[in-house]
Write a structure and sequence with these properties.
heterodimer; A: 56 residues; B: 672 residues; alpha/beta; six-stranded antiparallel β-sheet; six-stranded mixed β-sheet; 17 helices; 14 strands; 14% strand
C-alpha cells in the first residue's frame, strides 16, 4: 500500500532491533486489516515470543 | 496512478457512458455540464466503485432503463475503472449490482453488489483476477479514510479550514498519514501487557497481585507525565523555531528596533519635560510678580524702622498685651501666676499704670507697631520668594537644556529610522523578549516533568523487580512474563515512532505547503502548522495574512495536494464544483492560481486531476488559464428526447453552451 510505505520507512529508519521492527511491521499489517481485536495482538505477541498460547 | 477509462452503466441519470483517457492529456480532465446533467452522479459512481458507498436508492438504477424494461427483467448497474498503476501494471476494477423490475414497476436488488478486480502486468498481457479478496485489494490502494480529501465537493473547500472544529484537521492528517496506527499499536500492546501481568499475578499469589496493582497505578501516572512532557517538548520546539526566525529577521536591524524603542522613550520624555517647563515658567513668573511688588515696599522699610525706633525711645509703642485682660485680672484679684492681687497694692497700681499708658499711646504708635510686624513678615516672604525664584530659574535652565538635548537626539533617530518599518521591528523585538521568557518557563517545566517522570520510572522499576521476585517459581508465569516483556518493548517502540512520525509529517506538510504557496502568492509568505495542526499563512515577520474566499479555497487545494505528496499517494484528485460558487473576479483569480499549482502537479508528478464543472464555473475566461495544459474536455448533456432522464458524454465543449454570449464570442474567436 502506498501510504504504508511511509509507515514502513518510519520503522526502518528507527534504531530499534530487527526483532522489534519486525514486530512493528506485523502490528501495522494487523491494523491495516481494520480494527484488530486485543486477542489478535495477544496471538501476535505469543507468536513473536515463540511461546505457547496461554489464552483463557 | 492514472485512470485510463471510466465506464458507467445504468447508474442514475448516466445510462451508458465511457470516458476514455488513453489519448490526449489524461492528467488534466474537465468533465463539464449544466446542473442536473450528471456531474455529481459521475462522482457518486466513482465513490461506489472504489468505496462501495451507495447513492440513495432512487438515484441508483437508471429510471430510464427501469421504465423501458419489462416486468421481471434483470437489470445491471455497473461502474468500471481501468487504472494504470505506479508499477506500470494495469488494474480493472468493476462493481456491479443486479436489480429486478417488479410487477409494480419498481426495482429490487438481486443479491449483493459484486466487486471484481483484474490486473495485467503489461499492456500486451491479459487481465487475470487478483488472488486476494477484491475488497482487501481495493482498500489497500484506495483507503477509505482518503475519500474526503481526494474525492470531494469543491463547494466545501472555502470552508475547509473554517468548519473544521479544533482537532479535525489534526485527526484527519494523522489518520490519513496512518501515523495514528502507531498509537493504536502502542495502546493495544499495553493492554496486552496489562492483561498478561494480571494473569501472572493471579497465577502467583496475593503479594504479586498487590504489587501489580500498584505498578499499574504508577504506570498510568507515568503515562500522564509523559504525555505532558511530549506536549511541552513540542511547544518548546515551536517556540525555539519561532525565536530563530525572529532572530534572523532582526539581524542587522535589531539596533533599529532598540533605537526605535529609544525614540519612543524620548518622545514621551520630551512631552513630559515640555509640560513641566510650561508649569515651572508660570510659577516663576507669578513669584516674580509677587516678590517684585514686595520689593518696591522694601525701599520704605528703613524710614519706617527709624520711626518705630523713635516711638520706642519715646515709649509710645503699645504694650505687648491686651488691657482688657489685665483689667479682668485686677477685678478677679488673681494674678496669671495664681497669686492674690490685693486691691491698691503696688502690683495692682503698676498694672493700672500700664493700662493708662496704653490708653494714652497715640494711634501713630499702634500703626507703627503693626507696620513693624508686617515688615518682618514681608522680609521673610521676600527671602523665601527669592529662593523660590532662584530654584525655578535653575529648573527652567535645566529643562531647556534637557529638551534641547532630547530634541537633537530625536531628530537624529528620526533620520536614521526613516524608510524602515520600525513598528514591525519593535513588535519583533518585543516578541523576542516574550519568547525568551516563554522558552525559559518551558525549559523549567520540561526539566521538572523529566525529573518527575524519572522518579516514577524508578518506582516502576522497583515494582517490576518486586513483581518479578514475588511471581517466581511458576513455569506458566515465566512464559507469560516473557510475552509481557516483549509486548512492553513493542508498545514502547510504537509510542516513540508515533511521536517522531507526527513531527515529521507536520514538518513535511509545512514545507510542502510553504513551497506551493509561492506559486500562487507574491511576497515572502510562509505556512506554519502548529502542534494542533492549525494551518496558518504568515508574512515573513510572523503576522497572519487574511486570505480572501478564493485564496482560502486555494489553501485547501494546496493542503490536499501537499498531503498527497507527503504520504506519496498517487490517487487522482477528483473534485466536483472545483471553483465553487464564487463571483466572476474571485473565480478567475482562483482558476489562475489553480492553473499554476496544477501545471506543476500534473507535469512533474504524473498525478491526475479530474474536475467536474458547471457552466457557471467553466467559462472561456477560466478556460484560458488552463489552456497551456491542454486539458481533456468532455461534457455531460441530456440525450435528445430523454430530457432529465438520460445523459450522454460528448467531447469538447457542449454545443448548447456555444449559444451563450461568452462561449459564442469564444467560438467566434472574439475571446482567445
Amino acid at each position: 500500500m502506498e501510504d504504508f510505505s511511509m509507515l514502513r520507512k518510519f520503522i526502518e529508519d528507527s534504531d530499534f532491533t530487527e526483532e522489534i521492527k519486525d514486530a512493528l511491521l506485523k502490528s501495522i499489517m494487523l491494523e491495516m486489516q481494520g480494527s484488530p481485536a486485543l486477542s489478535d495482538y495477544t496471538k501476535l505477541v505469543t507468536q513473536l515470543a515463540g511461546g505457547i498460547s496461554l489464552e483463557d | 496512478m492514472k485512470i485510463e477509462k471510466i465506464s458507467i452503466s445504468n447508474f442514475g441519470i448516466i445510462a451508458d457512458v465511457v470516458l476514455d483517457l488513453t489519448s490526449g492529456n489524461g492528467n488534466l480532465v474537465f468533465v463539464n455540464g449544466e446542473n442536473g446533467r450528471g456531474k455529481t452522479t459521475f462522482q457518486s459512481a466513482l465513490r461506489w466503485c472504489f468505496y462501495g458507498k451507495e447513492p440513495p436508492i432512487n438515484k441508483f438504477l437508471s429510471s430510464y432503463i427501469l421504465e423501458s424494461s419489462d416486468s421481471g427483467a434483470l437489470l445491471n448497474t455497473s461502474v468500471s475503472v481501468q487504472i494504470l498503476m505506479d508499477d506500470a501494471s494495469t488494474a480493472f476494477v468493476e462493481r456491479m449490482q443486479v436489480f429486478q423490475k417488479t410487477d409494480s414497476g419498481t426495482s429490487k436488488r438481486v443479491g449483493q453488489p459484486k466487486l471484481s478486480i483484474k490486473t495485467r502486468k503489461s499492456e500486451t498481457g491479459s487481465f487475470v483476477d487478483v488472488l486476494v479478496d477484491p475488497e482487501i485489494w481495493i482498500r489497500k490502494y484506495f483507503p477509505e479514510r482518503l475519500i474526503n480529501f481526494f474525492l470531494f465537493d469543491g463547494e466545501l473547500m472555502k470552508n475547509f479550514f473554517a468548519i473544521s472544529v479544533k482537532g479535525a484537521i489534526e485527526n484527519a492528517v494523522k489518520e490519513i498519514a496512518g501515523v495514528d496506527m502507531f498509537e493504536s499499536i502502542a495502546s493495544n500492546l499495553s493492554q496486552v501487557e496489562t492483561s498478561l501481568n494480571r494473569k501472572i499475578s493471579r497465577l502467583t499469589g496475593t503479594k504479586a497481585e498487590k504489587i501489580n496493582e500498584e505498578k499499574e497505578l504508577q504506570r498510568r501516572l507515568m503515562e500522564d507525565i509523559y504525555s505532558d512532557y511530549r506536549l511541552t517538548e513540542d511547544e518548546l520546539n515551536l517556540k525555539k523555531e519561532r525565536k530563530s526566525e525572529v532572530v534572523a529577521l532582526l539581524e542587522g536591524v535589531e539596533g533599529l528596533g532598540l533605537q526605535s524603542e529609544r525614540l519612543k522613550v524620548i518622545e514621551a520624555d520630551l512631552e513630559l519635560k515640555t509640560t513641566n517647563l510650561g508649569v515651572t515658567n508660570t510659577a516663576f513668573q507669578m513669584q516674580v510678580l509677587a516678590s517684585g511688588t514686595n520689593s518696591l515696599l522694601q525701599n520704605s522699610f528703613a524710614e519706617l524702622r527709624k520711626k518705630v525706633a523713635h516711638a520706642e525711645k519715646e515709649d509710645r509703642l503699645p504694650p505687648p498685651f491686651e488691657p482688657a485682660r489685665i483689667l479682668q485680672l485686677i477685678e478677679d484679684e488673681t494674678c496669671l501666676c495664681g497669686a492674690h492681687l490685693e486691691p491698691k497694692s503696688k502690683a495692682v497700681l503698676k498694672l493700672e499704670a500700664i493700662i493708662e499708658k496704653y490708653t494714652v499711646a497715640s494711634d501713630v504708635g499702634r500703626i507703627l507697631d503693626t507696620t513693624s510686624r508686617q515688615i518682618d513678615l514681608i522680609e521673610v516672604e521676600l527671602r523665601t520668594g527669592w529662593q523660590f525664584i532662584q530654584d525655578k530659574n535653575n529648573a527652567i535652565i535645566q529643562l531647556r537644556a534637557d529638551i534641547d538635548k532630547l530634541t537633537k537626539e530625536r531628530d537624529s533617530l528620526v533620520e536614521k529610522l526613516q524608510g524602515h518599518d520600525v513598528d514591525s521591528i519593535r513588535l519583533l523585538a518585543t516578541e523576542r523578549k516574550n519568547l525568551d521568557r516563554q522558552i525559559e518557563a518551558l525549559i523549567s517545566k520540561f526539566s521538572s516533568l523529566k525529573e518527575q517522570g524519572g522518579n516514577v520510572a524508578l518506582v516502576v522499576d522497583r515494582l517490576d523487580k518486586e513483581f518479578s521476585e514475588a511471581s517466581k517459581g511458576n513455569a506458566q508465569a515465566d512464559e507469560l512474563k516473557k510475552q509481557a516483556h516483549l509486548a512492553n518493548e513493542i508498545a514502547s517502540a510504537a509510542g516513540k515512532i508515533h511521536s517522531i512520525a507526527i513531527q515529521q509529517v507536520r514538518q513535511q506538510l509545512q514545507n510542502s505547503i510553504s513551497e506551493k504557496f509561492k506559486l500562487i502568492m507574491d511576497g515572502d509568505v510562509k505556512t506554519q502548522i502548529n502542534e494542533n495542526f492549525e494551518v496558518r499563512t504568515l508574512r515573513s515577520d510572523g503576522t497572519e495574512i487574511e486570505l480572501s474566499e478564493g485564496q482560502n479555497m486555494m489553501k485547501a487545494y494546496i493542503f490536499s495536494i501537499a498531503l498527497r505528496e507527503v504520504i506519496n499517494l498517487g490517487f487522482p484528485l477528483i473534485v466536483d464544483t472545483p471553483l465553487g460558487r464564487l463571483g466572476e473576479g474571485p473565480r478567475t483569480q482562483l482558476a489562475s492560481m489553480l492553473s499554476n499549482l496544477l501545471t506543476q502537479e500534473i507535469s512533474e508528478s504524473k498525478r491526475q486531476v479530474i474536475f467536474l464543472m458547471h457552466d457557471g464555473e467553466y467559462t472561456p475566461y477560466t478556460r484560458k488559464h488552463f489552456a497551456d495544459s491542454h486539458p481533456t474536455e468532455v461534457y455531460l448533456a441530456y440525450e435528445p428526447g430523454f430530457d432529465t432522464k438520460k445523459s450522454i458524454l460528448g467531447k469538447g465543449i457542449d454545443p448548447n453552451w456555444l449559444k451563450f454570449t461568452a462561449w459564442k464570442d469564444w467560438a467566434e474567436e472574439k475571446i482567445k
